[in-house]
TrEMBL record:
Superkingdom of origin: Bacteria
Keywords tagged on the record: Membrane, Transmembrane, Transmembrane helix
Claim: Cytoplasm is one of the keywords in the record: no
The species this protein was found in: Thermoclostridium stercorarium (strain ATCC 35414 / DSM 8532 / NCIMB 11754) (Clostridium stercorarium)
Any Pfam family matching the protein: Beta-barrel_RND_rel
Entry's transmembrane regions: 31-51
Region (Disordered) residue spans: 1-24
Ranges for domain RND related beta-barrel: 289-359
Name of the protein in question: RND related beta-barrel domain-containing protein
Biased composition regions of type Basic and acidic residues, renumbered to the chain: 1-11
Length: 440
């Protein structure tokens, strides 16, 4: 057992040890505090910038063309004559769909229905003659450059169909390809000459044709125009004399009703017809009309006499048109345009959806979402451009807009010495951006 002096020495040593441990803890905490302060000074500004300013999207202001167009749905109207069958029978077309024919041209023959057997025999006999000739002269099947180019042009249209999803045009392409093949085969047939192995079959074919002609009635064109096979009961409704009486509901697309009663005929096929039935239309190709319905808010973009273009799904060409009338209804407006070009491209159509292309505006193109503080009365807005790595607000004039883009320009009365210009860098989404904010 130690003395009192020893106990006092031990207590003093323990106290000294505690002080040293406490001092080490204080030094350790002080070092950690210094590290935290250093981290805050170095990394927090960078983190702040990354969180609040690191995702600011910018783009370069460039010059481009903006197409101003109005969506519509309506009907094509033609100066046309309906062709009715004089009797019950079978129609044999002598012109392909959409073909221009001269005045007094024999574009169809109508024979008795009892002649269907003879027609089938003629068709089969022609095929046998062509096949037999081709087997003995295989070189005639080699397509020439013109034939290959024509086929390639039709096949290339399939790409446009896939892009526009206008699958109704497939029937037209198929009919055209069949027509090209028929014309090639017809050329082979006519060039068979007097070869003995086909001469007997040709004589047999001629006898069949003579039998067919005994009951045939020829249908002639009353004037020069375009032949359209098939007919519906709405020709009188959709006529030039009645187009100003059409209501908005008459212009809405209805594919089911539009295609009902239309003869989906392929080239050189024959088809049944009843007496007084409309089986074809002869269209005057001098002029056509498109009567359509558009949103009422878009009607102020059009006025009588404007020269615009019509873009129809499935037709590559833009059809030049003239606005003849703009009439306001309760919720929509009715527009009548006329045209005299590319009639053969759309003559088979009635109800369609199309774009009225009003104009193409060239200037500084920018997304509408990049504009803020827009004034709808004078059509001005603000845009943030980047100058010396800082956001600078510029007031601009909206020249035109379509869908999600606009064409802009500087204010004509502005005294700004450094207005917006081409190749300026602008903020794509200016929400929460402040004037003078640093933008890298």
């Amino acid at each position: 057992m130690g003395t009192t002096k020893d106990k006092r020495i031990n207590r003093s040593s323990e106290a000294s040890l505690k002080k040293r441990k406490a001092k080490k803890k204080r030094n350790r905490r002080r070092a950690v505090r210094y590290v935290l302060i250093f981290f805050a000074l170095v990394y927090l500004p960078a983190m702040w910038k990354w969180i609040f300013h690191g995702h600011i999207e910018t783009d370069v202001l460039h010059s481009d063309t903006l197409e101003i167009a109005v969506k519509s749905e309506g009907v094509f109207i033609w100066d046309e004559t309906c062709v009715k069958s004089p009797k019950d029978g079978i129609v044999i077309p002598k012109a392909k769909q959409g073909e221009r024919v001269p005045n007094k041209f024999d574009f169809a023959i109508i024979v008795d229905r009892d002649s269907k057997r003879i027609l089938s025999e003629i068709e089969n006999l022609e095929k046998n003659i062509i096949r037999q000739f081709a087997e003995n002269n295989p070189e005639v099947l080699e397509p020439d450059d013109e034939f290959k180019n024509q086929v390639q042009n039709e096949v290339s249209k399939l790409t446009d169909i896939a892009v526009n999803r206008n699958f109704t045009a497939i029937d037209e392409i198929r009919a055209t390809l069949e027509n090209l093949l028929y014309q090639r085969n017809r050329k082979i047939f006519e060039n068979t000459g007097d070869r003995l192995y086909v001469e007997d079959k040709k004589r047999e074919l001629e006898i069949l044709r003579q039998k067919l002609n005994e009951s045939a009635v020829t249908v002639k064109s009353e004037y020069s125009g375009i032949v359209v096979w098939g007919g519906t009961s709405d020709e009188e409704k959709y006529s030039p004399d009645n187009m100003k009486n059409l209501q908005i509901e008459d212009l809405e697309t209805n594919n089911e009703n539009d295609e009902a009663g239309t003869l989906k005929m392929r080239y050189e096929q024959f088809f049944d017809v009843s007496a007084d039935q409309i089986f074809a239309r002869l269209v005057n190709n001098d002029k056509g009309w498109y009567v359509c319905a558009i949103n009422k808010k878009d009607s102020d973009k059009l006025k009588t006499g404007d020269e615009i273009s019509l873009r129809v799904d499935g037709v590559k060409e833009l059809i030049p048109c003239t606005v003849e009338a703009v009439d306001a209804f309760e919720n929509k407006s009715r527009v009548i345009v006329s045209f005299d070009r590319y009639i053969e491209k759309v003559v088979q159509m009635r109800h369609v959806k199309a774009d009225l292309v009003i104009e193409n505006v060239e200037g500084l193109k920018i997304p509408l979402r990049s504009l803020i503080n827009r004034n709808i009365y004078d059509n001005t807005a603000d845009v943030f451009v980047v100058r010396a790595n800082r956001a600078v607000r510029k007031r601009i004039k909206i020249i035109a807009e379509q869908d999600s883009f606009a064409i802009i320009d500087k204010l004509s009365e502005s005294t700004d010495t450094s207005p917006i210009k081409i190749f300026d860098i602008y903020v794509v989404n200016p929400q929460n951006i402040e004037e003078g904010q640093v933008i890298n």
